[in-house]
Design brief:
Strand content: 15-25%
Structural class: alpha/beta
Shape: elongated
Strand order of the largest sheet: 8-25-24-23-9-20-22-21
Mean pLDDT: 86
Number of helices: 32
Distance between the termini: 66 Å
């Protein structure tokens, strides 16, 4: 609609400037439906609950629990069912809490609208607006629908929620022939935006889901939220482990059944078959870490507390870990990289003076004083008593500049009160006010540099008013161009003596030029180091902004995002690229400017198609679909509720540097989750090896299912959670982001788990053999005791793969020691008469047996640490030799 003639728009919408008739409006309302956003149906809590049982490991546990229930092992089956039920309820609650983006979007709708119907002005509910309605706007109004302007009077609209721009858009009734993004469609207004200045009248061209904000809602509905790398890794691992467990259990059952039918049983075939089933079930129970999902959730929750201290509030738990594997950060400019505060950073006087004012107002030249006076007096901005800054950002910058020069703006205004004014409008691009200064009535004018320069016949030069020469005019214009090349926003200032009378627009001629002020939204100081730290950590930073290309590139180069040879694209230029062309240039583009919500999603998907984990920051409604599409969406604390609801994380200080701090926490959280998982599986592997060894040797099953459930659900949980509190490894921010397709068990983790599992198994097997010398029941008690002790004590070597527990600080993580002590207490509870029988511990088992189990467990753990120390020294020598060879 923005490219058509007004007459064509009125014909197409079947309306006139007199508006619709009441009957026609009612007919269209029935055809088009209410001016509201429509939401797609969501899954019920019951559907979400049943979906949690699709996980492969959950299915295996359900099979195991059902078999145990049939065989009469009620306690064990009830415990497993309870754990699965709890995990499902937690998952449903988290999913429901994440819903709400569209609800927040609906809240942006205007409640009422002033329309012209049948030639008369009236107020109606905004939801009753239809295409063709003629709507009136005033300062402070929410725009209730999309429309084409019919009239405007100095109309300014804050469209930041759709465009990301920090300054209101100045609207004009004009023809636009070129294809331009929303931010440059000056003849249109959009639903949900806010009128900050002036008035207007427009014809409604779209309502409900057909509006620009409706398109955002549609993108939100169709955008699929990404699973995190950890979730994908655990899903893959879960499927493989489940198949392996089922296969192993069936093989063990088959071997046992064949042995029974070949006469290798006790003679009681029923009892032998039950034992064979119990052996197979014991393997399944031993292999599956029943508490894994709960432990991962708890470790992620601990990470959220750490991130909160870094000004990052996590809304969706898996996002904690995703940050740690982020390789591309797509960031907004305004307020994230910059201060979101227009600031005067330079100025120019006709005598060539720039940069710094004289030290105090008392030492100012007449030229400096007049520049400040015009900047403060021809200005409607103000600072409230509570410190809130009210008004246009460029005008706020001028009063801030005056205050910074030790000349409080309010003192200037009290000294020289406003007598009269010519308000700003987008046609003149000027604002003028009249004041009495030093006994003379003066007209003070500010506005666009080209207009003020062309309307000036004189200049203020070293305190004297002299005619403007062509040379002076060229010099001023060159300086304006120099400021513009630095992506600075420039305003010009002038004045002239004027008698005390009513002002007229013709008075803004024959002005005395005073100077220029150049301003920009400056980068945050801490961003320079943060961008550098991100680069050192192997992360690429890309700026995606609704601002102009020149401004975006200038800021990107200043803070180190862009370098020579990097590319910058506008949304329009991006639209002209094919997918193949975009993929070819993707890694060279560091700045995208004047982008649409669709552009942002396309950029994020392109990086994802390259296998990169992408973070996206934003604060506006236009950012919400991309925030949802990204692997991790990061909303600003001062942003819209829509953006926050679509995001996984919210920055309370809107600061890019906080993202880098959060990435460090995220990497540490992932490391700690891997440590916890490795801890669990090393213990489980030890139990499986011991069970299989007992089967091969025709020994009794070394563990009961209840013993294994006690270890997996109770004993192992505390040390695994304590590992979630480990401090970051020394080189955590010097390594590249991890590959999102990397498995849970790779490299050092796999070898560590295997080695620790073998040592635990060896200790358990030897303990069972020792106990069997007295009685088979004692062998089971010795095996259980040694397993629980060695699994608990292996928390120490599990703390790090790159350091021994001593190098990592033996007592640095006090929670580890607390967990070990509590686990020791829980084990002692199993020895209490009345409870020991439940855990199959005979009365003959005494403290000498406990001491033997402890010695065996300590021996296994000491061997783990000695082996690690030797390997680290060998690796250190190898690294030194490689460095010497390169040198």
């Amino acid at each position: 609609m923005y490219q058509k003639k007004l007459s064509e728009v009125l014909v197409e919408t079947r309306t006139s400037e007199e508006g619709l008739t009441r009957q026609e409006a009612q007919t269209r309302l029935e055809e088009q439906g209410p001016n509201q956003l429509k939401e797609a149906p969501r899954k019920s809590s019951l559907q979400l609950f049943f979906e949690t049982f699709k996980d492969a490991m959950v299915i295996v546990l359900l099979i195991v629990a059902t078999v145990q229930l049939v065989m009469g092992a009620y306690v064990e089956s009830i415990v497993i069912f309870a754990v699965l039920l709890l995990n499902s309820v937690v998952s449903v609650v988290q999913t429901k809490k994440a819903e709400g983006s569209l609800a927040a979007l609906k809240n942006l709708s205007a409640p009422d609208a002033n329309v012209i119907r049948e030639g008369k002005e009236q107020s109606i509910l905004a939801k009753d607006l239809v295409v063709g309605d003629v709507v009136l706007l005033e300062a402070g109004d929410y725009v209730p629908a999309d429309g084409r302007l019919l009239e405007e009077g100095s109309l300014k609209v804050d469209e930041g929620m759709l465009t990301g721009e920090s300054t209101p858009a100045e609207k004009e009734v004009q023809m636009i022939e070129a294809t331009v993004p929303i931010g440059d469609r000056l003849n249109m207004v959009y639903s949900g935006t806010i009128v900050t200045y002036g008035r207007g009248k427009f014809a409604v061209t779209a309502t409900g889901n057909n509006t620009a904000i409706g398109e955002v809602a549609g993108l939100l509905e169709t955008t699929v939220e990404q699973k995190t790398p950890l979730q994908r890794g655990l899903d893959r691992f879960s499927k493989k482990l489940s198949l392996a467990i089922l296969g192993l259990s069936l093989v063990i059952l088959g071997v046992q059944v064949v042995r029974i039918f070949m006469g290798g049983g006790s003679g009681d075939m029923t009892a032998d078959l039950v034992n064979a089933f119990m052996f197979a079930i014991a393997v399944a129970v031993a292999a599956i870490p029943e508490a894994l999902q709960s432990i991962v959730t708890i470790v992620l929750s601990l990470g959220t507390k750490k991130m909160a201290k870094e000004h990052a509030i996590i809304r969706k738990l898996p996002a904690v870990e995703t940050l740690g594997s982020t390789s591309v950060i797509c960031t907004d400019k305004t307020g994230t990289l910059t201060q979101n505060r227009m600031t005067v950073v330079d100025y120019f006087l006709p005598n060539g003076q720039t940069g710094e004012f004289s030290k105090t107002p008392e030492t100012w030249s007449k030229d400096e004083r007049r520049l400040i006076e015009i900047g403060v007096l021809a200005n409607d901005a103000a600072i409230a008593e509570d410190g809130a800054k009210l008004g246009d950002p460029t005008e706020v910058a001028m009063i801030d500049f005056s205050n910074k020069q030790e000349q409080p703006y309010d003192e200037v205004r009290k000294k020289y009160p406003r007598i009269n004014e010519l308000p700003f409008d987008s046609d003149r691009k000027l604002m003028s006010t009249q004041h009495e200064i030093d006994g003379a009535k003066l007209l003070l004018t500010k506005g666009g540099p080209d207009i003020v320069i062309n309307r000036s016949s004189h200049v203020l030069l070293n305190g004297e008013v002299v005619p403007m020469t062509e040379e002076q005019k060229q010099r001023i214009q060159q300086q304006n161009e120099a400021f513009s090349e630095r992506a600075l926003r420039v305003l010009a200032f002038a004045y002239k003596p004027l008698a005390d009378r009513d002002l007229d627009f013709e008075d803004e001629e024959e002005l005395i030029f005073v100077g220029l002020m150049a301003m920009i939204d400056p980068p945050r100081k801490e961003v320079f180091k943060a961008v550098s730290d991100a680069r050192d950590a192997g992360m690429k930073t890309v700026m995606i902004t609704g601002d102009h290309k020149t401004t975006a590139v200038a800021i990107a180069k200043e803070i180190g995002i862009s370098a020579d040879g990097d590319l910058a694209l506008t949304g329009t230029e991006l639209d002209q690229l094919s997918e193949e062309e975009l993929m070819e240039r993707l890694e060279q583009v560091t700045v995208y400017a004047r982008v649409s919500p669709e552009n942002k999603i396309r950029i994020i998907r392109a990086w994802q198609n390259k296998g990169k984990i992408s973070a996206m920051t934003g604060d506006g409604v236009n950012d919400a679909p991309a925030l949802k599409q990204a692997d991790i969406g990061i909303a600003m604390g001062t942003g819209t509720d829509v953006a926050k609801d679509a995001a996984a994380m919210v920055l309370t200080d809107d600061n890019f540097a906080s993202i880098i701090s959060a990435v460090k926490v995220g990497r540490n959280v992932y490391d700690n989750i891997k440590k916890a998982i490795a801890y669990l599986f090393a213990g489980n592997l030890g139990a499986i090896i011991a069970i299989i060894f007992a089967l091969v040797m025709d020994w009794s099953n070394p563990f009961t299912a209840l013993q294994l459930l006690f270890i997996n659900l109770v004993n192992d949980s505390l040390p695994a959670i304590a590992l979630g509190l480990e401090k970051p490894e020394p080189t955590i921010m010097q390594r590249a982001p991890r590959d999102p397709d990397e498995g849970i068990f790779t490299g050092k983790t796999l070898s560590s788990v295997t080695y620790r599992g073998i040592l635990i198994a060896a200790a358990v097997i030897f303990a069972q053999w020792l106990g069997m010398q007295e009685a088979p029941e004692l062998g089971i008690a010795m095996a259980f005791s040694t397993l629980i002790m060695s699994r608990t004590l292996q928390t120490l070597p599990a703390r790090s793969n790159t350091q021994t527990s001593w190098q990592a600080g033996f007592f640095a993580n006090k929670m580890v020691w607390l967990a070990i002590l509590v686990c020791g207490g829980l084990y002692m509870v199993t020895l209490i008469p009345g409870i020991r029988e439940i855990f199959a511990i005979p009365a003959s088992f005494n403290f000498s047996h406990v001491g033997t189990s402890l010695v065996l467990a300590l021996a296994a753990v000491i061997l783990m640490e000695i082996t690690k120390l030797i390997l680290l020294k060998v690796q250190g020598h190898s690294a030194e030799e490689m460095a010497d060879t390169k040198a």
